[in-house]
């Protein structure tokens, strides 16, 4: 399926903000299951989604963040996190995603421009 357009899913919302984060993750997995090239981008408050130690049960939510472990199984290996946004929010932690690429804002935007379709959540 090499004729598929490359899709970037940009996460800008916090982990439990109106289900946007879960919907973005579900969409990425759906595209990948049809062998559509997809990448995950995390910027602005979306960087909070990448924090490993989260307790959604305290909010009465399900732990969908653990699903990030399945991204590699679906061949979603292109995971980008805006390092500037991580620093601005004072985050210094382990990430819930495997082998993310931490990029400056400029590098992040340049990488995003390599995709044909950009979906923002």
TrEMBL record:
Single GO molecular function: transferase activity
Which SUPFAM superfamilies does this entry report, sorted A to Z? Answer: DsrEFH-like
What Pfam families does this protein's entry cite? DsrE
Signal peptide (from-to): none
Task: Report keywords, A-Z.
Answer: Transferase
Q: Which InterPro entries match?
A: DsrEFH-like (IPR027396), Sulphur_relay_DsrE/F-like (IPR003787), Sulphur_relay_TusC/DsrF (IPR017462)
Record flagged with keyword Transferase = yes
Q: Which family does it belong to?
A: Belongs to the DsrF/TusC family.
For this entry, the protein name equals Sulfurtransferase complex subunit TusC
């Amino acid at each position: 399926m090499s004729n598929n357009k490359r899709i970037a899913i940009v996460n800008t919302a916090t982990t439990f903000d109106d289900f946007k984060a879960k919907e973005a993750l579900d969409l990425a997995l759906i595209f990948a299951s049809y062998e559509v090239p997809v990448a995950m981008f995390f910027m602005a408050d979306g960087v909070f989604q990448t924090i490993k130690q989260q307790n959604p049960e305290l909010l009465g939510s399900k732990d969908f963040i653990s699903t990030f472990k399945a991204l590699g199984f679906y061949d979603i290996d292109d995971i980008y996190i805006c390092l500037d946004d991580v620093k601005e929010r004072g985050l210094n932690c382990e990430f819930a995603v495997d082998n993310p690429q931490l990029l400056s804002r400029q590098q992040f935007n340049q990488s995003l421009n390599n995709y044909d379709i950009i979906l923002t959540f």
